[in-house]
Amino acid sequence: MNIHKIRNCTITGNFIGDVVGRNLPFIDSTVDKEACVAYSSYFKGAPSYDIIFTDNIAAGCVYAGFVAPGHECGDSKQKSFRNNVAHSVGGEGYGAHIYQNPADKTSKCFEMSHFTAYKCQSVCFVAWGVTSEERVHDMTCVDNRLGVSMNIGGEREEAEIAMWDSEVWGEAGAEDCP
C-alpha cells in the first residue's frame, strides 16, 4: 500500500500482508524500502495532512511493516499513526521505519507512539529525524532480533532521545519464524 501526498483520509482496520520483493538492482547501495505500507515515504518530502491511520496489521513484509511519519511532540490524541501492528517481517526486518513528518517544517522535536511489532528479523522500529529531540512512548516490542533503534541525523551541540511507557521483550529471532 503506497500512500502518497494525500489529505483528509481515513485508513483503519486493514490487513496488508505477504508482500513480495521487487529485487531491483541499485548501483549506489540505496535501500529500496519495500514495506507493506509506505506512508508518504516513497518520494522524498511528500507531506500528507489530516490522516487517520489506525488499527492496521502488516505481516510478511520485505523491508518493513510500515514506513510512516511520526507526529508532533505532545500530541497525545493523534491518530495519524496509532495502534498499528507489524509482525513476521523478513529482509531488513523492521516492524516500522518512523521518520520526521515533512508536513511539520518548524518542529525541533518529533514523536512516535502506540505501535506494536513482533517476530521481525531486525528491530521493532527504527526512528530517524533531523531534529534536536526525539520521543518514543507506548510501544510494545516482542521477539524481534535487535530491539529498537533511535537516531538523530545531522551534527548538533545537544540532542535528546527519550523512551517511556514501552516494553521490549526478547532479543533473538523466534525459532518458529525463520
Characterization of this structure:
By secondary structure, the protein is mostly beta strands. The chain is 0% helix and 46% strand. The chain contains no helices and 16 strands. The strands form 3 sheets. Strands 3, 6, 8, 9, 11, 13, 15 and 16 form an 8-stranded mixed beta sheet that branches. 36% of the residues are buried.
Shape: globular
- Portion of residues in helices? under 10%
**Would you count the extended β strands for me?**
16
Mean pLDDT: 85
**Rounded radius of gyration (Å):** 15 Å
Distance between the termini: 24 Å
Nutshell version of this structure?
The protein is mainly β.
Identify the notable features of this structure and list them briefly.
178 residues, mainly beta, eight-stranded mixed beta sheet, six-stranded parallel beta sheet, 46% strand, globular
Task: Explain the layout of strands and helices.
Blueprint: E1 2-3, E2 7-12, E3 15-17, E4 35-39, E5 49-54, E6 57-59, E7 64-69, E8 71-72, E9 84-87, E10 94-99, E11 109-118, E12 125-129, E13 133-142, E14 148-152, E15 160-164, E16 167-169
